[in-house]
Amino acid sequence: MSTKAEELRERLIRNFNEVPLARETREPLYDGMGARLARGTAALKLGASIDVLEPGKRGCPYHLHHAQEEMFIVLEGHGTMRVAGEMLAVKAGDVVFVPPGPEYPHQMINTSDAPLKYLSISTRDTPEVVEYPDSNKVLANARVAGSDFGFARMNRLDTDLDYWDGEP
């Protein structure tokens, strides 16, 4: 393979079966292995990760996006996609499309007795606002993808300030 081909391969291709997975645990509900696949690639507007959830565990907090769109592709196992307060069964081969907006809060849950493996794919639109209905939190994110430049803050939705608060 030429040097150019090797460089292109490094910037454009990831094999989700070969990337090292990192464990992320927060008992009692969250325990899984995953890897962000787009980091270090040429991707500018897409994010992707591979996730493996242990039986009975959840992938992330129940949340909704105001800008980003997501897609989940179930590769192995079966579980439940909690969406808009409903529990939808998912299995290997299912593709779940979640548009942005308050109509689609979502969360992947492994309701089976075996690991659940899936790909998460998303647009990386910024600025982004993410709401967490179970905990009444909101994330405001205007970070530039792949850098430390920008702004990101997590707060509670019930801590509104007056526009003039703290101003001289």
TrEMBL record:
<keyword id="KW-0479">Metal-binding</keyword>
<dbReference type="InterPro" id="IPR051610">
    <property type="entry name" value="GPI/OXD"/>
</dbReference>
<dbReference type="GO" id="GO:0046872">
    <property type="term" value="F:metal ion binding"/>
</dbReference>
<dbReference type="Pfam" id="PF07883">
    <property type="entry name" value="Cupin_2"/>
</dbReference>
<dbReference type="InterPro" id="IPR014710">
    <property type="entry name" value="RmlC-like_jellyroll"/>
</dbReference>
<dbReference type="InterPro" id="IPR013096">
    <property type="entry name" value="Cupin_2"/>
</dbReference>
<protein>
    <submittedName>
        <fullName>Cupin domain-containing protein</fullName>
    </submittedName>
</protein>
<dbReference type="InterPro" id="IPR011051">
    <property type="entry name" value="RmlC_Cupin_sf"/>
</dbReference>
<feature type="domain" description="Cupin type-2">
    <location>
        <begin position="52"/>
        <end position="121"/>
    </location>
</feature>
